[in-house]
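Handout, section 3.2

Students often ask what a structure token actually looks like in practice. Rather than define it abstractly, here is a full record for Reverse transcriptase domain-containing protein. The first block is the sequence as you would receive it.
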Amino acid sequence: MAMQRIFDNVLHKNVECYVDNLVVKLKKRKDHLYDLRKVFERLKRYQLKMDPSKWAFGVTSEKFLGFIIRQRGIEIDQANIDAILRMPEPRNIHELKSLQGKLAYH
């Protein structure tokens, strides 16, 4: 079952999901434990496992899929902007397609 369907009613409110990556975000610290509990209950209900080495709790900012998530919002990681600016200008259709693929990643 797709993660988007499992977390459908909370996505973009307090949970962000991409493939099998989750971020539980909060506006108020007191609500965070409640939100985490709901996420863990749902993971358990669908028998989904998580890798504890990838967990990060109580962080005020974190890199997530090329973005930096902070309390004030989501920002593009400057390293990705710099990588795009360093890319050479395409000289033919093959290089243009290659550039499109790289831009889709960043």
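Discussion prompt for tutorial groups: The helical segments are 3-6, 29-45, 78-86, 93-105. How would you have guessed this from the sequence alone?
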